[in-house]
Amino acid sequence: MKKRIILCFLFTSAFVHAWTHMGSNTYGWKQKKLTFYVNPTHCTIPESELYQRIDNAIRAWNGIPNTDLEIVRSATVATDGDAQFRAKTATQVPLILCSQQLSDYGSVNANAILGFVPYFDENSEGYVHYSGLVLNAQPGALAELSQLAPGEVELIIGHEIGHVLGLGHSGDPDSLMYFQLNKEFLLVTQDDQDGISQLYPRNVLGGALGCASVHQTQTKLPTTGLIAVLILLIVLFVMGRFSFRTEQLL
Ligand SMILES: [Zn+2]
Q: For residue range 181-204, what is the model confidence (pLDDT) as tens digits?
């Protein structure tokens, strides 16, 4: 008597993405509406231009599907400055400011770095709660703010905002979060969007009708499958008994 039941379930899933988290962060900021504060003191381009670059960068990150994240720029000028930010006492965070001495933040090459994110602190819940970006306003430095084209400034501010939001560097060369900024204009790609959607997932609550509809669909499929399995088992059982009796007779 031979009974052979072969059941094969093969589930293959591939999750391929190039984006990474900033540090160990997996949650981003707790608030979904995040206000960036700007202190334009020491910045070496006109305030109106600075705000335009920042607003364009912020706009690029807004409107991503499958996330409730909304970034805004504070309408009021930040009073927290360089000293408060470095002392970790700034309350207006995330903060954007300009530094005249990048070495205050450690070994930062002022001839190559236009902007950077010096802090990315998480609280006990795993949410980032202290961060911001520093723009290069160091006199005579090659990468000082006024030395770069407007598009480059916008691109770099957008990239650094991505870090502040919780994204690390991406392996996708097309991504805004790619470690080398070799693009001509700011563009948030699908890879960037995937990272933000993971950090700030949209909270979608189905209504009563939606839930009922989903549940009904889900209960039908297992029932059908269960019946098929039961029929199969009954057939095999009957065949097995027949086979067993045949062997006994032989
Ligand atoms: Zn970067």
A: 777 788 899 999 999 999 999 877
